[in-house]
Specification:
The complex is a heterodimer.
Chain A: H1 19-25, H2 32-44, H3 52-61, H4 74-87, H5 96-102, H6 108-120, H7 127-134, H8 155-165, H9 170-176, H10 185-199, H11 202-211, H12 217-230, H13 236-241, H14 246-257, H15 273-285
Helix pairs in contact in A: 1-2, 2-4, 3-4, 4-6, 5-6, 6-8, 7-8, 7-9, 8-10, 10-11, 10-12, 11-12, 12-14, 14-15
Chain B: H1 3-15, H2 19-32, H3 38-44, H4 50-63, H5 68-74, H6 80-93, H7 99-108, H8 112-123, H9 132-149, H10 155-168, H11 174-177, H12 181-195, H13 202-214
Helix pairs in contact in B: 1-2, 2-4, 3-4, 4-6, 6-8, 7-8, 7-9, 8-10, 9-10, 10-12, 10-13, 12-13
Classes of the chains: A mainly alpha, B mainly alpha.
């Protein structure tokens, strides 16, 4: 996972606004900058207003050819709308068909945002299209586009979504596995994360732990986030010892505590000894 | 370590002409834990070199109380980044003179990493060195700041508030606080963090449950 997502700066005019104001601004189709901020706001604040999802679906359809001279380009609104839908949970599942259509868009950034959202919504219907986009493997889907640092497909987002949705079929695993030897460490990290989530096999966790030692900080950060997302408890000590910011280690360790499938935090729950061990490490990082 | 040796280490920091050089020189100076190193270590906090700043904070914490006046005197005119690191140092040292800076940081700082350090720091000030009345007053200020922090928008700050409240609990024991009321407010705040239905981070609720368990408060 590209690190720092939690600390992304507020886009555009970052003034505090009400939900009502956000819903007004997202309708302003002739002011993409206002819509851009409103879409972000609705996701960030997890709006449960009944109009939020339909309006974001509308904004997601607002896609036009890129015009770099026009300030906020229109696909930026669609991208933020996709990301916001991913954060709105069950009500946003109504938008899955729209997100599936977006996954076929020509715009790389839009496909990426749609993949993230489909993963967040755990959209089982997305597994096959996601798998198909990756099926040509590291040599095609994972090849660098001429003239840009981008790969042909937003591989990181596609891999992460498959891991998050959680369908561990052999055909899915077979498509992910070749990416664990991709030339880019962030892609390797995303592939290991997905396989760890889908199979819980220690070998994938071990590879992520090895990436915590990578000489580049941004790789270590990504491996931290990926171990956290997978909730790999065996990584507790290596995470604590990683050369990276405490803020990111704390996010990763939160993932270890809240690992998927584990009942935690419900009323009356008292943490078990293994959880207390993670909490103790977190306390020391504050 | 005697003074000339510390001066040589300070010179090493001042002469450093690369990020790595600064980091190594700061680590060496920090390891001296000598009070004379404090002004230079505080200066390093303003250099926008995170690695060196971490080493400087460790060094200031190792120096402890003798570094507090230097920190408080020097941070005022400093940039935001330097102040953030200074809050971490004051939280780690635990000297009561840092109380106002920690209160301010938890209540107003824009950086979650600063607020979380301040929240933990407010739980671990060494109040026992004070006379009974100032001690009660200081404990009350810590408690109030942490109670306000329960509403922070960032999960990691609310987590740190739970930790801070657990650490502060002995200081508001009815025996010391001249009554049960402060302790009740502290327990109530932890129950609030534990049971808040709007809490988006289960780890916060869990950490509050652990604090309540350790403090022997029945819940859930």
């Amino acid at each position: 996972m590209a690190a720092g997502a939690a600390d992304q700066p507020i886009p555009g005019n970052g003034d505090p606004i009400s939900e009502e104001e956000a819903l007004r601004r997202i309708r302003l189709t002739d002011d993409p900058s206002a819509q851009y901020y409103a879409a972000w706001w609705l996701g960030r604040n997890r709006s449960s207003h009944p109009e939020a999802v339909p309006l974001l679906q509308e904004a997601l359809r607002q896609r036009r050819p890129r015009d770099p001279g026009a300030g906020v380009e229109e696909n930026a609104v669609a991208r933020n709308a996709a990301r916001a839908l991913g954060k709105l949970g069950v009500p946003a599942r109504a938008a899955i068909p729209d997100l599936l259509a977006t996954l076929e868009d020509d715009d790389h950034g839009l496909r990426e945002a749609a993949a993230h959202a489909l993963g967040d919504l755990q959209a089982v219907d997305a597994v096959e299209p996601l798998r198909r986009r990756l099926a040509s493997g590291p040599a095609v889907a994972g090849a660098q586009q001429p003239g840009t640092p981008r790969l042909q497909e937003p591989c990181e987002a596609l891999l992460e979504a498959l891991g998050q949705i959680g369908v561990a079929e052999p055909a899915v695993l077979a498509v992910i596995e070749p990416f664990v030897v991709h030339e880019r460490p962030l892609i390797r990290s995303a592939a290991c994360r997905a396989l760890l989530q889908l199979t819980a096999e220690p070998r994938w966790g071990d590879q992520l732990v090895a990436l915590l030692q990578h000489q580049q900080l941004h790789v270590r950060r990504a491996a931290l986030m990926d171990l956290g997302a997978a909730g790999w408890r065996e990584a507790l000590e290596p995470i604590a010892a990683t050369l990276a910011e405490n803020s990111l280690k704390l996010i990763a360790l939160r993932g270890l505590v809240e690992q998927p499938g584990r009942e935690s935090g419900s009323a009356g729950a008292v943490p078990d000894a293994a959880t207390v061990a993670v909490l103790d490490v977190m306390d020391a990082l504050l | 370590m005697n003074e000339p040796d510390v001066n040589a280490l300070v010179e090493g920091v001042q002469r450093a002409d690369s990020a790595v050089g600064l980091l190594l020189a700061t680590q060496a100076l920090a390891a001296s834990a000598h009070p004379q190193a404090a002004p230079c270590l505080v200066e390093v906090l303003g250099f926008n070199n995170p690695g060196a700043a971490v080493a400087a904070v460790d060094g200031l914490i190792a120096i402890g109380e003798p570094a507090v006046d230097t920190i408080l005197t020097l941070i005022d005119g400093y940039n935001y980044g330097a102040r953030a690191w200074a809050v971490r140092a004051l939280a780690g040292i635990g000297d009561v003179r840092g109380l106002e800076v920690l209160e301010d940081a938890l209540g107003k700082d824009i950086g979650p990493s600063v607020r979380r350090a301040a929240a933990r720091g407010l739980g671990q000030l060494r109040l026992e060195v004070l006379e009974p009345q100032p001690r009660r007053d200081a404990a009350e200020r810590c408690l109030q700041a942490l109670l306000d922090g329960c509403r922070d928008g960032e999960w990691v700050v609310r987590y740190a508030v739970a930790v801070g409240l657990e650490l502060l609990a002995p200081a508001v024991h009815p025996h010391l606080a001249e009554g049960p009321e402060p302790q009740q407010r502290l327990h109530q705040a932890l129950l609030g963090l534990h049971l808040n239905p709007a809490e988006e981070a289960p780890v916060v609720s869990l950490r509050a449950a652990l604090a309540l368990q350790r403090l022997g408060v029945r819940h859930g």
